[in-house]
Design brief:
Radius of gyration: 22 Å
Structural class: alpha+beta
Order of helices and strands: HHHEHHEEEHHEHEE
Strand content: 15-25%
CATH class of the largest domain: Alpha Beta
Largest sheet: 7 strands, mixed
Strand order of the largest sheet: 1-2-3-4-5-7-6
Distance between the termini: 60 Å
CATH architecture of the largest domain: 3-Layer(aba) Sandwich
Shape: elongated
CATH superfamily of the largest domain: Gcn5-related N-acetyltransferase (GNAT)
CATH topology of the largest domain: Aminopeptidase
Length: 206
């Protein structure tokens, strides 16, 4: 295989990575994949002797590194906001993200009922996540929905809710949170957040 074909393959790989990154909704994944694609494109530019291609993509690499640094080092504001099951904003939020919700928790249906707990997770005052569950008299929250909007799916919200806010749940009389496994992706996420498999459910003890 001559060098020309190898260089072409490198160029195609870089193109695919950049194209794939632009289709990603998770900002961290987008930045990382785009960084890798741009780095390979920069190498491709060097190999074919094109300084503009190499220079432009090296600049894109630096931009991605800068924004990833900002994402991982900036202090963000998080807060839980409790709302009623009939809250108008809540109902509109669920309606707006209904298709996205069904991808990960296809069995979810919002029917307000006594004992229902509805919590927005605010991230820099943006309603970035929503947790809904039914609280029983013995302190078990049966989770109906644990949802984060696409651009904030970097596990920060999950760590905030399940690691930093245990005292909040205790103050609400919640001793444990139970969830159906849902899709494989959602189950994997909950296990990463500290849920443990128990029969056909995942359980988080507060």
């Amino acid at each position: 295989m001559d060098n020309y074909i190898i260089y072409e393959i490198i160029g195609y790989v870089a193109s695919v990575l950049v194209a794939v990154s632009l289709m990603m909704s998770k900002i961290v994944s987008l930045r990382i994949v785009n960084l890798i694609g741009a780095a390979i494109f920069s190498l491709y530019g060097i190999l074919i002797g094109s300084i503009p291609v190499a220079g432009m993509n090296a600049f894109i690499v630096l931009i991605n590194i800068y924004y990833l640094y900002q994402i991982f080092t900036n202090r963000e504001f998080f807060r839980l906001l409790k709302v009623t099951p009939e809250d108008h904003y809540l109902l509109n939020f669920i309606d707006f993200y209904s298709d996205e919700i069904k991808k990960y928790q296809p069995g979810f249906d919002h029917t307000p009922s006594p004992g229902m707990v509805c919590l927005f997770i605010l991230r820099d005052m943006i309603p970035a996540g929503l947790l809904i569950g039914n609280l029983s008299n013995d302190g078990v929250l049966s989770m109906k929905l644990d949802f984060v909007i696409p651009m904030y799916r970097d596990f920060k919200i999950g760590r905030y809710v399940y690691s930093d806010q245990k005292s909040f749940f205790r103050d609400q009389g919640i001793k444990e949170i139970r969830s159906q496994t849902g899709t494989a992706i959602h189950a994997e996420y909950l296990i990463k957040m500290g849920f443990m498999p128990e029969n056909d459910q995942l359980v988080f003890r507060v």
